[in-house]
């Protein structure tokens, strides 16, 4: 009976400990695409992981232990599942797993040290992050370039979900789903091209639609005006001289042609008389 009581007591304690462990909330915060702006304020240590990654699974116990020191170190410990949050993985250009970033007041540094609880604590308490060059503002998560990359990653995930919905729920074959995406891409490209042509025509219209420039819209300096007037007068004088020469040449040609006509008449009459 005593042994049975001891066993029951140990079993109750084990069950209570298990329930407490299950009911205890993890100190690690889970970030999503819509929460990334929280990283711009305060100090953070963020882990990017994937559930299928063995290295990420090995890191989880150390990361959980490190998170228990977050309140004492005044640092937020968080993690991001790249398979569920493509926007955040696109902002940080995650190319290896797991990847850890240190964020403080909008500055982002990639952690590349040892991955144990003690190393994480020393990295924060000794401010070892100051020796790491922060990410350039051009490639920071809040930059326009990385925002565009985040939108591209989200679009790819949306296309993947649509493909799964069409093939699994609707029953469309795989090639049919690809054909739908091809047609959608062509149609969207056509609409975008027409919009760009319309905007370009509005901003930079062609020459045939532009109003003709006024020849006398600009003010001419007095010296330039006198020079232009003198050139016009010389051009008119040259034209008058040319016209006078042409008139004289015409008169001379007329005078030369009239005697020849008179001379030819007797010759012609004489010829007619001989013929008669």
Task: Provide a descriptive summary of the structure in words.
The protein is of the alpha/beta class and 276 residues long. Helix content is 61%, strand content 9%. It has eight helices and five strands. A five-stranded mixed beta sheet has the order 1-3-2-4-5, sandwiched between helices. Helix 2 packs across helix 5. It is elongated, with a radius of gyration of 46 Å.
- Please describe the biggest sheet, giving its number of strands, its sense, and whether it closes into a barrel: 5 strands, mixed
Shape: elongated
Low-confidence stretches: 1-23, 259-276
Structural class: alpha/beta
Give the number of DSSP strands.
Answer: 5
- Order of helical and strand elements: HEEHHEHEEHHHH
Helix content: 55-70%
- Please list the strands of the largest sheet in the order they lie side by side: 1-3-2-4-5
Mean pLDDT: 73
Distance between the termini: 177 Å
Number of helices: 8
CA radius of gyration: 46 Å
Tell me the β content.
5-15%
Salient structural properties:
276 residues, alpha/beta, 8 helices
Compact summary:
The chain has eight helices and five strands; from the N terminus they run αββααβαββαααα.
């Amino acid at each position: 009976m005593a042994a049975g009581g001891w066993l029951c007591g140990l079993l109750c304690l084990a069950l209570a400990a298990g329930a407490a462990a299950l009911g205890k909330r993890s100190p690690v915060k889970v970030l999503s695409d819509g929460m990334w702006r929280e990283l711009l304020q305060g100090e953070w240590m963020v882990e990017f992981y994937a559930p299928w990654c063995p290295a990420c699974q090995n890191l989880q116990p150390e990361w959980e232990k490190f998170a228990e020191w977050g309140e004492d170190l005044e640092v937020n410990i968080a993690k991001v599942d790249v398979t569920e949050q493509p926007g955040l993985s696109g902002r940080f250009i995650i190319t290896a797993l797991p990847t850890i970033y240190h964020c403080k007041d909008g500055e982002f540094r990639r952690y590349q040290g040892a991955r144990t609880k003690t190393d994480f604590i020393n990295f924060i308490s000794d401010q070892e992050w100051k020796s790491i060059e922060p990410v350039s503002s051009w490639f920071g998560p809040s930059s326009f370039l990385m925002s565009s990359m985040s939108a591209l990653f989200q679009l790819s995930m949306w296309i993947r979900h649509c493909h799964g919905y069409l093939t699994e729920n609707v029953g469309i074959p795989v090639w049919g789903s690809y054909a739908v995406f091809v047609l959608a891409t062509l149609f969207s490209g056509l609409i975008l091209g027409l919009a760009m042509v319309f905007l370009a025509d509005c901003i930079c219209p062609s020459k045939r639609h532009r109003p003709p420039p006024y020849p006398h819209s600009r003010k001419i300096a007095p010296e330039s005006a006198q020079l232009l007037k003198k050139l016009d007068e010389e051009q008119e004088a040259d034209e008058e001289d040319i016209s006078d020469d042409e008139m004289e040449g015409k008169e001379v040609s007329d005078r030369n042609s009239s005697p020849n006509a008179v001379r030819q008449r007797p010759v012609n009459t004489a010829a007619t008389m001989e013929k008669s």
